[in-house]
Input
Amino acid sequence: MDLRVWEDHEAGSDTEFWPTTAGDGAAGIATRLDELRHRYAGLAGEALLRILIEQEFRGRLAVVSSFGAESAALLALVAEIDRRVPILFLDTGKLFGETLRYRDRVIAALGLTDVRSLHPQGEQLAEDDADSMLWLADPDRCCALRKVAPLASALHGFEAWVSGRKRFQGAARATLPVFEADGAGRIKINPLAGWSRAQIEAVLATRNLPRHPMVADGYLSIGCMNCTDRVRPGEDPRAGRWRGRVKSECGIHLSLAPRLP
Ligand code: SF4
Output
């Protein structure tokens, strides 16, 4: 079994960060979204993933995973269809060690063969976050450097990408569509958008998948160390992310369009 983890993916230079011609223009993307929504209305989960991976975007689709609290469910469904689907993992340099070790456990358990660990571009990081405290001064820019830019670079050549977001995760995701534009000319797909927590739990339990060790300690959504807190009873699952700030998304789910100067 080829357990390949790419550790050498850095975002390119400034001029390489941002795809400007990744696909059709805005009108083309809107037409494509309409077509996909109509063609696959009513499909979700594994059934939708299968047709997208094997037919609609065959060889032109990646999955983006944080290897966080519920990630193993989506990854298991993908692996059951094709273990070779590229999985993009943003190793921001600020993650918990538990997450990095969990990533490796999940790769081994599912037999994933093309997990790509993406790193921030070193020179840009040295210039803009020399003291590693940008997360405190300007978290949006920190996310742009450590997440958005590496992902935008890694998505060159792909037509579509899949995320594991769900509507039940909080108010900001309550109206999440299954198909949307990523702001940079590609289609973003949320095949579990309408799933419940119970459906996710069923996938994890029936397959006896490894659990992220921090979930049992109250971390229901797990990102970077500085920006992740435990979730209190009654709170949304993502309430511990950027606690005390207006920010609720890292930016990769807002737009991959250029933002850095
Ligand atoms: S989640 Fe926090 S530490 Fe991680 S990239 Fe965003 S602002 Fe920086």
Notes: The longest strand covers residues 5-10.
